[in-house]
Amino acid sequence: MNGRSKTRSAARLAAVQALYQLEMEQTPLAVLLHEFHQHRLGATIEDVTYHPAEEAFFDDVVKGVDARREEIDALIAGRLAQGWSLERLDKPMKQILRAGSYELLARADVPVASIISEYVDVAHAFYDKREAGFVNGLLDAIAKTARP
Predict the structure, then answer these.
(1) Residue 66, CA distances (Å) to 15, 59, 136 in order
(2) What is the reported pTM?
(3) Rg of the chain's alpha carbons, rounded to an integer?
């Protein structure tokens, strides 16, 4: 993995964490971004060193998901199995799917396969194999609409 893809991977994981915090604590977006820039990206917290993250990419994903949440949520909800709703999804899972969907919609500079595999990797940080497979299938379905 080259340096840029490592900083992008770190940015994606941090974006999912920031989106989770945004939903749970309703932190104002500017405050949240500042907190991550100052204290999380590339920092060491409780003996865990976070990889330096590509800050502009992190900001784009977090701001983009926040700005387009309704559109993104409708896209995700439309791909869930019958009887499932966005509300039933685990909160971290919801943020992983939102961030991945945003990239599929708005980041034409990033190949579909890269986006899907990156968010499957992010899912592995939170979940077992089955959930990672769910992320793969759902983002793949969204990609067919977002990038026909």
Answers:
(1) 11, 11, 22
(2) 0.90
(3) 15
